[in-house]
Design goal:
There is one protein chain. By secondary structure, this protein is α+β, with helices and mostly antiparallel strands. It contains 15 helices and 61 strands. Strands 1, 8, 9, 10, 11, 12, 13, 14, 15, 16, 17, 18, 19 and 20 form a 14-stranded antiparallel beta sheet that branches. It has a 7-stranded antiparallel beta sheet with strand order 48-51-60-53-54-55-56, with no helix packed on it. α5 packs parallel to α6, α12 packs parallel to α13 and α13 packs antiparallel against α15.
Length: about 1000
Amino acid sequence: MLMAPVTGTAAATAATRPTTHVAKDEPKVARSAHGVTVSVPASSDAPGYTLDVATAELALTTRRAGKTVLATASGDTGALRFTAADGTWQHATGVTGWTWKDGVLTVTADSTLDSATVEARITPRADRYQLDWDVHGGTPKQLSLAYDLSSAGHWYGHGEAETPQGGPGVNQPWPLDAGEVDHKTFGPASYNMIDPFWYTARSTGLRVDTGNVMDVALNKGKDGLGTFTIDSPDTYKATVFVESTPLAVYRDYTGIVGKPLQSDAPYEQFAKPLWNSWAQFYTKVDQEKLLDYATDLHDNGLDGHTIQLDDKWESNYGNLTWDPKTFPDPKGLSKKIHDMGFDFGIWVTLWINLDSDNYQYAVDHDYLLKDAKDTSKPCEVTWWNGQAGIIDLANSDAKAWYEGNLKKLMDTYDIDGLKFDTRFFDEKCAPREGHQATDYQKLGTQLADEFDLQGAGIRVHWNRTAHEAGFVTRQVDKGTGWDSLRASATQNLAISTIGYPFVESDMIGGSGGQPAPSKDVLVRWAQSASLMPLMYASTSPVGTFDTTTGQKVDYDQETVDLYRQSIRTHEKLAPYIWDQVQSTLKTGDPIMRPLFFDFPKDAASYTVTDEWMLGPAVLAAPKLSTGATRSVHLPPGTWYDVNQGTVIRGPRTLKGYAAPLGVTPAFVNLKAKGAGKAVKALKRDDAPAASVLISPDAPSTDSGTPFEVTTEVTNWSTRTLRNAKAALDVPDGWSAEATTGPTAAKSLRNGATLTTTWTVTPADDARWGSHDLTGTATYNAYNGSQKVSGTVQTQVKAAPGSVQEPYLTADTTSGGAQYAQGGDQFAIWAGGQDLSGWKDEKGLVYRDDAAGETATVQAQLVSQSSTSPVGKAGIALANDLTAPEKGGYAVLVMTQSYGLEFMTDSDGDGRLDTWAGGGSTYHPAYLRLTRDGAAYTAYASRDGETWSQVGTAQVPSATGTGDAGMVASAANVNYPGENIEAVFSGFSVTS
């Protein structure tokens, strides 16, 4: 332990040689000319990190393994910012001193406001650091943290985001920095489902600990900044998490705020939809319409657990009595709904309109929240149904009165559950004495927990009670178009990854008062919801009303059939979903989550907006836009396509995947827990009954060297298969012998696998490169004899050896290049700093004096592999390839990552000084160089038939007959010691 505090000033730091203060296995502090660095060592469950505190102008940069993973903003924006009394933005500037004592780094700094200074206290821990800071003097109004968004990669979290593009109703950017977030009233009383938590693609996270309203902006105006402003001058308290994966950051966060201790919704509410009347009728509802609605659903086999009557059943808002004109017999209504097999529920609110019967009673008994500006009178708020007061749940008498009215209503009319709507608090109101605004989320949670919420859940957030209650979370009202459907998916990802795992979309088809959804939107929304934890429905696929015109909208029979199919899919998936509910109660992990939570090393997953994991086994990829095809990204793994019955190896992007209206793309990770249940639930009836899986998915060997593969024939159907037989087809000249396990089974029951291990021996002269191995299975199913297959590619590797006459080799690297030849195939293994104008280092296989003054050199570059993205392999011409300074030098190469390069020596000094090329890298690449005297032209082709010109150049030093060959350079100047492997075939020189 440190025996005394370590201190420094900006002047002292600049004049002092770097010094490190070490405490074993604990954070260390080092100082240098530019700042102070806190180093936190790695541990068994944390990666470790460094935090650099710049002293010239206070800024914070977090690094993991030497790479920046989070950095505050710089320049005029400032990192630690505040508004002065006149409303102008100010920020911390130069550090004036620092102290390291008892594990806390305290930093003081000047600011752009002469009368104000900033003090920050940083407390590092293994996987996070606490950042608390204050402004002294200057009478600040707001405190704010600002970050450079790009420093952390992409940003996620937040919850339902207000955006200039219409969020959260019709827009929810994913990642957040892909759009713009401008959320000015981001606080605990918000109707939006939000938490002050954000996490990033580089596995950092930010939690702001406040009960005040915030103004949060991410990439507002495309400025690349994240600003997190608290509307208070009090101490700014934040936690920055530094982990190895985004999921670990999420777990750190829920470790602070809590995870569900129970599921408020029982199994049936996860298994079947809730049907709510809102989007079907909005406020134009009555008893007859609701009964017709329920009857149509029942008669068309559109299953559900509840019919829930939404807004406009009351005589007035807050009365909790029926409107006798529109609902003359609510008791009879309830009975008829129950007789159809549904539960019955109603919509309620704590907001009492000023003209209702109950308002004056509530005022007289002091049951309403008080006005924040004048606590002698009730708080009046404006909402979509008029002016209202809000019942004060912190008043035990008010709560008891309201609960009593609810329970009396439910008992009298056989009402099974409730949908609570609106908020439990408003910023215009004053909390009851002894309470804070944040307490009302907890009080609302406790109230709602006494009733069956029927899968409609409740919109509470920001506090531990909300996290632990385990409520279903429904989204804010959506529009009825494609943009809203897409937002419903990304918004669920946002909500579930801030700690509310039991999510559902808004009512299927939307509920935001727009024209009725089209057939395609309604069906696609139902398909999407079928692959979420719960289904929340309203618009009937039998027919609905267009609220903008009042006209009836009829859907066709296909709409009904496909909607019913989605409900059935969800019901079959319910046992798997319920398993995920139980898992979440143990871990707190979200059920519906982004792909990168399960596959953090898969870079492509971080920007996928229309796919998600449902538990560990199901990848949902529903079609969320017009058209009948889509691209599907599959992360690493072994995936079962539930629509086509095939097994696919990831990572892979399926372009143009067929998704007509009746198809919902979904894939099962066969190695994940729950895969069997998921396949059983999702496999289409018309998909093959069995599949073939070959392991490993990318075997490799040498020519003539035996290796083993295993085939697994699995029965995914609900019936037993008869006479199942496995076979392995190999290339001509190869052999495959079953060495372990049977190759046939008289019967193969549901879920059973026929496993066979094969010894495969390639031909002695097998060509290098990829060769198909195809596993097949034949079996007798209920519909006759069937055959399925699966294929993997085996890589036959080249091994260093020698080349045969007339070929020669040369090495201009630091030594160690190796070569091989097998028939018309060649391989080069070489180092080399670069193959370009400044450095010419390469391995070379060539023919001496083979290219005349008019010549064509051509080869197929089969493959190349180098650590350096600019590793190069291709073909070359020169008067003498072992001495390029003798003139006539040109190369055409493919780089590892940046496409083609055609380079020539224009002045005969042996240096490549002209360049053409670019584009993407591809293999195999067919390369061609032509010479016509001093004119050289380069071509490339993907198939060896259609050629594109790369470039042309004059090489005046080309004379007589010259050399032609194949070259490779690791271009390892930034990757010392790394080599390249390049494989060629079909090299030819014609003159």
